[in-house]
Amino acid sequence: MDTGAARGSGGSLPCSNCTLCVKPWHRRQAPAALAVALAAAWPFPVRAQLVPGPPAGGGTLLGDTAGIRSFLDRYGISIGLQNVSEVLGNPNGGRTRGAAFDGQNTLSLGVDLEKAAGLKGGVFNVSAVQNYGHGLSASNIDNLNTISSVEARRSAWLYELWYQQSFLTGAVDVRVGQLGADQEFMITQYGNWFVNAAFGWPTLPSANLPAGGPNLPLATPGIRLRVNAAGPLTVLLGAFDGDPAGPGLGNPQVRDASGTLFRLGDGVFAVGEVQYAINAGKDAKGLPATLKAGGWYHSKASANQFFANDGLTVAPQAASGSAIARENWSAYGVVNAMLLPGPGGKGGLAAFARAAASPSGRSLVSLELTGGLVYNSPFGRDGDQAGFGVTSVRVGQALGGRALASRYVPHGYETVLELSYQAQVLPWLQAQPDVQYVITPGGGIPNPNRPGQKVGSAAVLGIRTIAAF
Fold first, then answer.
1. Beta strands in 29-91 (DSSP E)
2. Residues 30-40: pLDDT tens digits?
3. Does a structural domain hold residue 2?
């Protein structure tokens, strides 16, 4: 049984000094069997987002490297190496106060097979990531909307490995191989540069899907179809193996510690999205916007924390066996819109919003609302952006007030506010000071370090750097 989504890192060993904690490895066998069962269902508090984009300056520290990059480009080969490093700390709140240093190296190789071998419309891509340090959510705050999009267990993973073939002069393309759904589905165009993971791959699928679904650092075998149906209309369809790490206890990032399991037969995760672009052409006179509507279905989602194998709600003397895997689904919508163009048409004020919902009776997180404002090229600085974002999730509503189990599982809201500025320091380097405030982590989870109290709301201060080599 998968005991939760892939939102935990650190590779910590079990401890024996807490009775009920959001981390399964921070839980001893409490006298109340119910508390143990429900605590085991809480997801690991780690990341859920696509890789931060390369610096907008477009440069690299190593440049053309004695003409090597230019030579490879003639044959359709491109190599990318990027580092994201950050220091984040919570001076108050959380399970405990402190600071954390973590980061991620990303290596990618892309091959345009038309240039390389004359295969028109063919593209090959492979990428790998290596994480280091430890994340603030896992070590200090225990929240669901993970503080950093690069927070993960210290390890190295093969991420994506796929072949893409386009047809009809690019109107249709098919991608097959090991894929991450977080690279194309549910994305907020103006919001995915924020530090908090929830502004990329949403918290809702991360909490409700086995191993957090196919998102960094764990991809899974799948196929994706993209059709540019009619001008501004684009349709995306994807089908993936249902569990990147496979069934089992503990951290999914430990069960697949290298990204090379290539699993099949764990159910199906299917997702579809329709995108409509407004004023997207070169000659368009109005302000651009993109509307997205989609949904996903999982045939064998994470073992439901509220039901035993006899279908009864987990409560004392009511559960006769282990929890069962139940299908789950979600619907979502995304809006990206330019509100006010900047001077000379450069940058300007943009807004983004996203809403997602899942059945409360089957989901740890049943509702997620995200939105914010971003100003591109502030102060006339190309490559800079400033923004304010808000994301909130509803936790544990499946229990309502009916079950005795509701005493042990939080059923409220976790909300994160983020204020961030990303500065283009050099053509190959960005620096991003960041402030976040986490309100009611986990919707009101108990603090294992302070019996009888909940994990407190936390302010987070930090800085991130993004370097392209």
1. 77-90
2. 323 333 333 33
3. no
Q: Within a domain: residue 371?
A: yes
Q: Which amino acid is located at 174 in the chain? A: V
Confidence of residue 14 (pLDDT cuts 50, 70, 90): very low
Run of H or E including 375: strand 365-376
Range of the domain at 344: 24-468
In a domain, 444, yes or no: yes
What average pLDDT does the segment 58-78 reach?
91
Is 404 in contact with 38 (CB distance < 8 Å)? no
pLDDT digits (tens, 9 = 90+) for 146-205: 999 999 999 999 999 999 999 999 999 999 999 999 999 999 999 999 999 999 999 999
**pTM for the whole thing?**
0.84
- Is 384 a domain residue? yes
Residues belonging to the chain: 469
Please say whether the beta carbons of 110 and 125 come within 8 A: yes
One-letter-per-residue 3-state SS of 383-436: CCEEEEEEEEEEECHHHCCCCHHHHCCCCCEEEEEEEEEEEEEECCEEEEEEEE
Hey, which residues does 103 pair with through a beta bridge? 85, 132
Residue 363 burial (10 A CB sphere; 0-12, 13-18, 19+): buried
> How far is residue 412's CA from residue 396's CA, in Å, rounded to a whole number?
7
Reported as a single tens digit per residue, the pLDDT across 407-461 is 445 578 999 999 999 999 999 999 999 999 999 999 998 999 899 899 999 999 9
Q: Does 256 have pLDDT greater than 50?
A: yes
Judge contact between 386 and 393, C-beta under 8 A.
Answer: no
Q: How far apart are CA 78 and CA 82, in angstroms?
A: 13
**CA-CA-CA-CA torsion sign (260, 263, 269, 272):** positive
Q: Please, are residues 357 and 184 in contact by the beta-carbon 8 Å criterion?
A: no
240 pLDDT higher than 60? yes
Among 112, 134, 135, 133, which Cα is nearest to 123's? Answer: 112
Helix (H) or strand (E) holding 385: strand 385-395
8 A C-beta contact, residue 191 and residue 52:
no
Report the CATH number that the domain containing residue 460 is assigned in CATH.
Answer: 2.40.160.180
Buried b (16+ CB within 10 A) or exposed e, 410-436: bbbbbbbbbebebbbbebbbbbbebeb
Please give the single-letter amino acid code of residue 449.
N
